[in-house]
Specification:
alpha/beta; Rossmann fold; 5 helices; 6 strands; 38% helix; binds flavin mononucleotide
């Protein structure tokens, strides 16, 4: 099973990448293959048309499409901006459709304040349903992110360690259940 981590923060001086890298490390420690898709390294144009319908899909949109296709499941990492998830993440999601179909999606939200991006996370879970994907009910919220990690990207608090562990336990259960169900032969009513 391969899990893509889609990092929806490209801001200069961003903090959310710390959470994305920590999640990647923790997944790899559990023997899970990962692909960290950093939208700062793969900037997408403002949407003109979805990849599947665009007459001349740009190479970087195609490259990202292939990476999303390859992932059995995805974790979306977003900062909370003005009470919602980031515009750069929404723009990226809008380029694609088939890439997400029936995939298990975990939502992770990050904020500078104490609420850990709760509004961003709830709104993003709602959007996941419109992608034709499955949003896991449990999410990971990282509050006061600017002081949550040390220089080597280790969490400073036991709370972040434990909540990440719980989130990944739940996500891997959820993702494996969906991946296995998709591999099973379809039952048809007699
Ligand atoms: C444009 C903008 C809007 C923001 N709006 C909120 C907000 O509504 N709620 C909140 O808790 N934090 C808000 N913040 C603070 C961010 O959550 C904080 O900068 C956090 O580090 C976001 O992740 P990033 O560093 O990856 O951008 C905002 C930050 C920016 C840049």
């Amino acid at each position: 099973m391969k899990i893509g981590i889609l990092l929806g923060s490209t801001r200069t001086g961003r903090q959310s990448h710390k959470v994305a890298h920590y999640l990647e490390k923790k997944l790899q420690e559990r023997g899970v293959a990962t692909d960290l898709i950093d939208l700062a390294d793969n900037p997408l144009p403002i949407l003109e048309e979805r990849a599947g319908r665009h007459p001349q899909v740009q190479a970087r949109v195609q490259a990202l499409s292939a990476r999303l296709h390859e992932a059995d499941g995805l974790v979306f990492v977003t900062p909370e901006y003005h009470g919602s998830f980031s515009g750069v993440l929404k723009n990226a999601l809008d380029h694609f459709w088939e890439e997400f179909g029936r995939k298990p999606i975990g939502v992770v939200a990050v904020s500078a304040g104490k609420l850990g991006g709760i509004n961003a996370s709830t709104q993003l879970q709602h959007v996941v349903l419109s992608l034709g994907a499955f949003a896991m009910p449990t999410k990971l919220l990282v509050s006061e992110v600017q002081s949550a990690f040390d220089e080597s990207l280790q969490p400073r608090s036991e709370h972040v360690v434990k909540s990440t562990q719980r989130f990944l336990d739940e996500y891997l259960w959820f993702a494996r259940a969906i991946v296995q169900a998709k591999q099973a032969p379809t039952e048809r009513a007699a």
